[in-house]
Amino acid sequence: MSETSIVIAACLAIALIGLTAVRAMRKNQDRIERPLRAALRKRLICHLVSRSDDTFVEAALDGPGFLPVALQLLMQIEGVSRARLVEVMRRRNADSRLQRRLRRSSHTERLAAAKGLRFFPSRDTNNALLRALHDPDVNVQLAAAESLFSQESPPPLAQILAAFARTGRRQPARLDPVLRVCCEHHPSAFAAAAKAPEACIRAAALRALSKHSCAKSYGAVAQGLRDKSWFVRAAAADAAGRLGIYELVPSIIALVDDEHWWVRFRASEALEKLDSIGRNALRKIADRGSDRQRRQAALTLTKRVVV
């Protein structure tokens, strides 16, 4: 065995030993802290139930385990008890601590911070949550979006959509679930997102719209079918089929002749979903359409027969 191989093997062995030691230490630490967290939780519940404002009693709650215990309890209680716990946490600067955790902690802590910040509305909280829309973990992004829209005074929609756009340009697939949450909480977001200057936002809005129909569906989808970006047109065609917008059949027929094959595919699939009206249109263009239309329509109809 060469000297280089020996060095590499030794480094790997040291790394493995180190990882094993860290895991054992964490397990041991958790075993030690578990009863302490349980005692702190019990003390905190007693304090909330007693409705005492005794600062000496509150001081007994201080400790490194307070924030995770309080966050967990915050998600489980409601009404006056929750409001009181929020005040107790504010007096311990929980909001600023959560904002810091959202920037430089483990995935689990960032996720808990994104969920917990919904109870501490402020400009700083909004800014922290907007930054979290760029988090590398999609679950943290979703939690941040949920928290933003649960605020009494969320940031302007355009500001949130701009943050989504930066995420979407890097990783388009991550944009869909986050924008879906945005549109569920803020119905007007569909219309705004469908007109966004960024094509990735427009396409994601139409994909979200295909799962959550709203009063402005027709206008947004009709506009999407005419979009200059091919992937927006494809998303619009898919949405028209899923939502059953029969009035748009003529526009969808035109897209079966689109220069991009994915748009043609989505348009023909949409027609197939639109019951007899759409399928009759497919048969007509399979007979009398352009070369591209005939090929795509025939492919869709053949696939349906085979299935």
Would you mind describing this structure in some detail?
The protein is mainly α and 307 residues long. Among the domains are: 35-92, no CATH class; 229-307, Leucine-rich Repeat Variant. It is built from 18 helices and no strands. It has helices at residues 3-50, 55-59, 66-74, 79-91, 94-101, 107-116, 123-132, 138-149, 157-170, 172-185, 188-194, 199-209, 217-225, 230-243, 249-255, 261-273, 275-288, 291-306. Helix 12 packs across helix 13, helix 12 runs parallel beside helix 14 and helix 17 (275-288) crosses helix 18. The model has no long low-confidence stretch (mean pLDDT 79).
Main attributes of the structure:
single chain; 307 residues; mainly alpha; Leucine-rich Repeat Variant; 18 helices
Entry summary:
The chain is mainly α and about 300 residues long. It is built from 18 helices and no strands.
- Uncertain segments are none
Main beta sheet: none
Number of strands: 0
CATH superfamily of the domain at 229-307: Leucine-rich Repeat Variant
CATH architecture of the domain at 229-307: Alpha Horseshoe
How many H/I helical runs?
Answer: 18
Under CATH at level 1, the class of the domain at 229-307 stands as Mainly Alpha
Instruction: Give the percentage of residues in beta strands.
Output: under 5%
| Helix/sheet category | mainly alpha
Along the chain, the helix and strand elements come as: HHHHHHHHHHHHHHHHHH
Question: What integer is the average pLDDT?
Answer: 79
Q: Helix share of residues?
A: over 70%
